[in-house]
Protein: Protease 3
Amino acid sequence: MLVRYAVALFVLLISGCASFPKSPTLTPDPNWVSATLPNGMRYHLYPIEGEQIELRLIVNVGSLDEEDNERGYAHFIEHMAFNGTRRYPNNSVFEEFAQVGVEFGPDINAVTEYGRTVYQLSLPDHKRLPDALDWFRDISDGMTLDRNEVAGEVGVIFAEWRRDNREDTPWPLKLYDDLIDDSLYIDRDPIGTESTLNRVTAESLKAFYDKWYQANRIQLVVIGGFDVENVKVEIEEEFSSLGTESTLPEPYSILPVDRDTQYPLTLYASQGESPALVVSFKDGEDKYPQTLAEQRDLWLRWMVLDAVQLRLEEQFERENLAHNGLYFNFGFLPGWKVYELSVEFNDIDRPYVLDSVARNIASLRDHGVTLDEFLSLVEQYESRNFFHEDQLPIEVAENVYNDFYYNRLPQSRSEQNDNFNKFLEDIELDDLNRELTRLLKPSNQSLTIVYGKGESIANAEKQRDSYMNTVVNQGEIVKVSYAEVQIPQPEPFVTVTEDAIEMAENIFRWKLPNGMPALYYKMDDSDYETQVVLQAKGGVAAMSTKERAALDLLFETYRNGSVGEVSSNDYSHYLESLGVNIEPQVYGNSHSVSMYVPTEYLLDGLNALRYLVENTTPSEVAFEREKVRLIERINIAQTSPYEVFDRASLNLIYPPPSYESPLTIEDYESVTFEDVTSLFNKLFGDMGYFSVYVVSDEPLLAVQGVVTALLGNLKTTREKTEVKSLIYNQKGGRVVKHLSPEDRTYVEQVFIRSSTPRTVDSVFAEDLLNRVLQTRYNQIVREEYSLSYDPFFSSWTWDGESVVTTTMTALVSPDKEKELESLWPKIRKALTKPVTKTERNNAARQLIKDWYESQTDPQFLVGSIARYDLWGYDLEGLIFPEQVIERIDNKTLSEMASVLFDDAAFFESILRPINAD
Structure:
């Protein structure tokens, strides 16, 4: 429930400076209904058609409001909201809302930040809205703060601290800590301190609670399908009597750090991380856009960041310069606008990466982007739907969450869309280049060099000086141009040869002339987007050890090749101009090519997909570069104690030649360019034994015609892929490693046993059982014994496999390991006891709710249809999931639970602190 760095996600997402004093003022969405009660509490209602309801209770109190002896209290109070209130004693709030399908985590949760605490509740409909308002009122002044509950929760919070705090943190968090050093933020981690948490009492918590939970610091948000007038009456009846210290609503305020805060020159990456560099660009005080001009300034800045990233990515490829990641985005510096360009690489490439970044930054500053680059960016922006007008309640809630940081309600999406479209119509190349010149000037920049563990930083100042000397010099002109791409259409077009058959409601099947089966699901509304998947059995399970190593080199080798007569860059820009995304993917037992395309460009997108399948050519230069990069990256990763532990665990459970066994450096070193091309031909060389799956809102005949015309002549002579069964160590075993740099112990228990072939009923039954057993596992390990904050349970038979794998994990204090060990018999007994009707019904409601929430997502639907068809599951489960769920009673789930650990190979892996006994 704690997000230590939540501010970093959104504090600097909104920025801008007024360019035109008389520019029109932005207005909040008029659909908001807001009011302030006489006690200063504010509420905001946003009705949307549909049934779902999102509620947020926002309290302006966080870790910055605590005294030194109260460190962690705001976060502790947040925990106690779930541990007992007047109307929901103990943990009964979870049980109460589980009856309508609400799950802890995604549906009911909370977060404590530096300056506010936010409680979240997501309901499937309005029926339990009065109960939700009861609970939120209880949170406001009715927490019981029982002594026993407080004492028990201390262990849970320490367990959360163990999860979130590492001795050797990732370098981005080290950078964050360095930036907030010498400010209140560094000493106000919401989790608190060991000393204050050990001394906490119910009385001290209540004093803090009574002081800060006042009506004028509270805002309530309700979004979704409800009657506004009825909800207004309920809110006013429920909250008007809430106590307050002032009738004036308290605005939220951000505490800025010192404006002269400097980025550090050097940092060390943790073991297993790549070296990196960060170039920061400061850009003044952070302000929320109040006018149209300021909003356009913000969007222009988005385009600047994308322009720099686009130039660097393409120049790195042209210079044959490998990297492990490149991203340019808003950084975190409370109160100020700052942007961070981050590049990760292997240490041998550091001087070349520094030089390339400096040269390209100087070039962009002094000469800007080319017309082709500018037009490409505009086309990309035009093809994206940044501001959906038809929003789900959860999307509106996320906007409120961000905008309330600036004490305002979100702008209407229709106004944002209109403004954004006008921005794209009006923007010119000179606008973008002027902004590049302004932002990229040397005085705005500072460089942070991230070194690998154990590297010398002796030459850091020399490298910084070299970078800055290159940046301040006049940049060279870089001529970037993109070819006009005209992908030829097949000649002649293939015509439909058989009628489509309706397999289930809105699901149609037909066969293409080349023998490929096609399955189409027609959505009522998919926001004018179409999803296409070509999928076949095979995947990693069909590969040899060398082929698995070749797979890790395959995608970069082909991504940097060419497509027919079109270069990889020109082909990518062509797809981006259409808003099309094509991704080859390889899973455990299947492989696919997926495509997202705006429906208006379906024909062009399918033609580009066909052309890619028929004409893609790999790059041997890219292969050699990627092989060197990957081997070095793996060498770095294997210095991590966590990587060593994971590999030891996997080797124990899945010894070679199992397709789940970990690969070695020697495996990668033996891979040749011919191995990669051979693997590509095996997977994607033609579409033999592939099927086509489409989800769209287009009419059936239109989809059938265009899919047949563009894909009906693809080559389909590839032999059927034979899938190997998963090999595992049937004797079981134990791995114990004393490697962890943290004072915590990680325990994982795995049980593997044979299972029967899956059916649609067993797919749903496993899902239901996992929900029931995760709740039971949480109740013992977290709630009853306070051993682990996020104890994890899962038990699944993966598609195409004949074994069920059950996994339980816990992250505990080292002195609690023996207690956990003694609890395993109790845990296994609790997990295998009969499932009650209440447990079954709660899990069923959760599953139905999750399923129907996903029915509006075309990407989820096309993946589900491909999965169900590929593995022979009844399509009834897609269209009428509640009918399948109805067949699965608690007796069925009880039988499954009772054999959970029977005749299973047992594995235990334990990662202990270094030098632990």
Remarks:
- The radius of gyration is 29 Å.
- The longest helix spans residues 292-318.
- The mean pLDDT is 93.
- DSSP finds 31 helices and 26 strands in the chain.
